[in-house]
């Protein structure tokens, strides 16, 4: 091989080695950048999800009731009832009102919901929880759990005009201070129908 051929061969080899080195460097840069990018997106996504995740709502404690007590334990047995609705700004039997209702499993907490006032027990109001959830489809399941409902139809207590049901087997003792606002008066025939079912399910 003459010197010119040897020079060309060395030049070609150097050029090929240089291109291979450049490709290797580029591939290495891509490999090092790709995991970092994925991690950044994952971390950013996690942080973003954490920002969107709602914080636990603060406890909604029961307001003070008669004698400074919180809302009392649920009433058991056939309740004393009456029908005396009056648009006087005070909750009366026969009215559906919005009130703070304790959770069945934890009376130290609760939420605002419509309730039907059916009577009084001393200074307590006796009320039945009202819901817009339709329990017709899971009636058998609810009955197995000891929960029974009666359709009330719609009324002024629900501003969206939704059909409502009243629970028959849970009688809540409410402090008068727990009532937020009056909703509507239940017609007496329907009120009496509710009482018949309440007494039937009372233990």
UniProtKB/TrEMBL annotation:
<dbReference type="InterPro" id="IPR003477">
    <property type="entry name" value="PemK-like"/>
</dbReference>
<dbReference type="InterPro" id="IPR011067">
    <property type="entry name" value="Plasmid_toxin/cell-grow_inhib"/>
</dbReference>
<feature type="compositionally biased region" description="Low complexity">
    <location>
        <begin position="23"/>
        <end position="33"/>
    </location>
</feature>
<feature type="region of interest" description="Disordered">
    <location>
        <begin position="23"/>
        <end position="89"/>
    </location>
</feature>
<feature type="compositionally biased region" description="Basic residues">
    <location>
        <begin position="49"/>
        <end position="58"/>
    </location>
</feature>
<keyword id="KW-1277">Toxin-antitoxin system</keyword>
<protein>
    <recommendedName>
        <fullName>PemK-like protein</fullName>
    </recommendedName>
</protein>
<comment type="similarity">
    <text>Belongs to the PemK/MazF family.</text>
</comment>
<dbReference type="GO" id="GO:0003677">
    <property type="term" value="F:DNA binding"/>
</dbReference>
<dbReference type="Pfam" id="PF02452">
    <property type="entry name" value="PemK_toxin"/>
</dbReference>
<feature type="compositionally biased region" description="Polar residues">
    <location>
        <begin position="34"/>
        <end position="46"/>
    </location>
</feature>
